[in-house]
Description:
This protein is an alpha/beta fold. The chain folds into three domains: 127 residues, no CATH class; 100 residues, NAD(P)-binding Rossmann-like Domain (Rossmann fold, 3-Layer(aba) Sandwich), CATH 3.40.50; 165 residues, no CATH class. It has 18 helices and 13 strands. Helix 1 packs antiparallel against helix 2, helix 2 packs across helix 3 and helix 11 crosses helix 12. It is globular. The two termini are 25 Å apart.
Amino acid sequence: xxxxxxxVVIDLTSAKKATIPTIAPGLLLALSDGLVLxxxxxxxxxxxxxxxxxxxxxAAAWQRSLVTGLMLVPLVKSVxxxxxxxxxxxxxxxxxxxxxxxxxxxxxxxxxxxxEGFRSFFVEALxxxxxxxAITYVxxxxxxxxxxxxALDWRTPVMIVGAGPQGAAIAEKLQRLPWLGMRPVxxxxxxxxxxxxxxAGLPVMGPVELLxxxxxxxxxxxxxxxxxxxxxxxxxxxxxxxxxxxxxYCVLGEGNVSAVDATYHxxxxxxxxxxxxxxxxxxxxxxRAMDIVLSAILLVLVAPLMLGLAVAIRLDSPGPVMFRQKRxxxxxxxxxxxxxxxMHVDAExxxxxxxxxxxxAREEYTTYHKLTVDPRITPLGRFLRKTSLDxxxxxxxxxxxxxxxxxxxxxxxxxxPEVGDSAAVIGTVRxxxxxxxxxxxxxxxxFQERVAMDVFYVRNCGLLFDFxxxxxxxxxxxxxxxx
Length: 483
């Protein structure tokens, strides 16, 4: 499950036989790491090792450093349970990989300090280990998102208990993000008005008790997700025990529980979720300093590109180069968000006319606040949006303190009624050029899903989370997966 849906996993009956054994994904990751590390070792040894060193003693010392550094990677990753991680969540994998790399630094720092004659050995071994962590991390993500997520037989078939709005949101999310490792097959719900209907494209098969009474229905899934714990109240324990599955995922909240640093505790038979509440003051100061430095550097580097784009926009369609729009900055404050113009100058009039005459477009815009086929966009504007180049002027907003490199979406003032009570949380940090929702579906997410993701980000913001978002943003830009 995604960290956006924190859950409790309760083991019940004997395990069912899966198409691909549970150990298989972890074994594939371990084999992938072994192959990658072997290639890294061969490459380093060929260009920097025995073939390049004239002295036999230096070559032997290099070999020891190489072997030590490479062996530390799978050893420490296994200690942190990366190969046995049941859920394929980018954030959880990133967090554990960082912890593993930090442990390597700590382990090698002690002998580096006390053993003066071996300092070069430990520096080389640590450098190789950190390189190994970085390369295997990228390889793991490629394997998960590429090979494993495309194999439907590998994904665990799950039955969702509760076909309400939260259950529908979870089903849609699991279908959109196959790397989460779960494939929803249907719903059960005690509301008879929903029986024999379809929610999020999946059938509502009947009441919850159908799973216990009909083995044919139960065999379609290997696990269950209780979509709304609050709906079941004190009957949750009894409900869970009636489900004929070894694993039951009880969703605690849709973006309302801060779970990046959450841990589970056994209070002498009572399961408790400990959530760390961290004041973000120090982090926000560090992030502001990074925003100033990085935005200033990037503005200098991309200045020639921005000049060329400005000329191209002038030639493409009549109108100004820059597009300015009022955006909300928390409380009653607003600022002028800058973008390269990607629409015709009469875009607002075209939008109102389109929404008035096309009910399909009106429904899509109401749900997503975007249009898949938008006639207002200029030919060059489509390229700018696909590559996200239209957002380069926002580097000036970042330098001036209106925005941050990473943060929640910069909402328009007219959207605040739909944001609702969540505005009190979202408005505590600067809006970002990129953010959690932009790398988690972007234009394929509904407006309310974006709000939930922004709330989740604000409640869990940190340097590691920001690094994760930056990496995903770079991948999306390279893929051209713009808005």
